[in-house]
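Problem 3 from the worked examples.
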Amino acid sequence: MSERPYPARICPFEKLHPSLLTRDDEFFMKLAYNQAIEAWRVDETPIGAVIEIGGEIIAQAHNLVENSGDPTAHAEILALTQAAKAIGDWRLNGARLFVTKEPCPMCAGASVMARLSEVIYGVPDAKMGCLGGATSVHELPKLNHHLKVRGGVLAPECHALLKAYFQEKREED
């Protein structure tokens, strides 16, 4: 694909009506969902994550546990590392994490430690989810940082993807 033969221009409508151009939560979750698809393509559990600050994407990743042989290579951890590098600080104040499945204990703890402002996830996890599913790490009373948590964004799509992946895995065995 070639470069545009003309310079990019600012649309005056954008300045007059910025709310019409705001990226909403579904937009970011769809990007996380696309990362989950990438995970499936490389034979990983299909979980994807995106981190944004002020509407700008600063990180996106998918699970790489199997390919890397690293038990910490969850989508959330990889995205947190990318985000910290992108802004040059481990404190991700004001950042929001979008992830297709409720974070596990490790990822929930890392989200708190990274000082995220909010975690938005797709499908809850009653067995291993630690932002309201099995437990609520972010609500420990003595924490020095608290984050907002919201689940259910694109939950049917995220659930269907995980279900199909594990169904395929059972059929392979």
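Problem 4, a separate protein:
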Amino acid sequence: MKVEEQINTYLTSLPELKGKDIQQLHNLICELYPTAKLWFLDGKDAANKIVANPNIGYGKHIIKYANGTFKDFYKVGITATSTGISVYFFGIDDKNYLARNYASRIGKAKFTSYCLKFKSLTDINTSVFKELLHNVFNRSN
């Protein structure tokens, strides 16, 4: 199954309101960054065991491991959680950067290192969210 089909299957499997919010975030990111690579992680490990929530990813980030190996991954990822929505941002060295620069302006949301958590899309300031996306997508790694 192609990535776009996996994403659509995931989006339609979500509860209505959360699915609508994730769809709007997906549309926003795809509109702002139409050439960004799309990813879909189903949350399962090699043994087909669920170990995480499914994620939709955007862009490309290279993870450098301590042992000298590399792995391609996404720069921004979104997922539905039991309590709302999480947006992950990769390629930022300072784990306090997001909270320090966006927490006071983003709205009713919480930052934890490289993750933004909120209950509903109406809880965040989309202009600040777009600024944050721009910052992350324009970082080189």
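Solution to problem 4. The two ends are 30 Å apart (CA to CA). Helices lie at 3-13, 16-32, 97-106, 126-137.
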